[in-house]
Model the fold of this input.
Amino acid sequence: MQLIRTNSDNPDFKILSALFDDYLVDIDGEEKDFFAFYNNVQLDTVLVVYENSEVVGCGAFKKFDDTTAEIKRMFVHPNHRNKGIAKFVLNELELWANDLGFTSFILETSPKLTSAIALYEKTGYQLIPNYGQYIGVENSICMKKG
Done:
């Protein structure tokens, strides 16, 4: 696997983000526009993963506060799941964020994304009360590590 550090202007990241957004329409239903507002933002810390020159996964983070990075846009192409790509991306995002001085991580996901939640739990994330714009959103759970 090859990994590149880039930003959200990367064409391959845009392709995966569009696939992710389509996937989330089925999950988020009527709340899709709410989530899209917070997900379709400019990101300067994006990872894109390739396998045999084919784009297979991505992830990003952004500053939440001085010590906390918020994990965003974690997605693995459906044809490439169950290969450890998501864990690889998450680990690399955390290492990159650590290099920039972040010591803890938060994220938001759907309670319907059970495999994502399992990955986060296996890598040390714990459920926390919903933060920021996710407070009071029933179709949202938040997690933290560190």
In short: Helices lie at 11-28, 32-39, 85-99, 114-122.
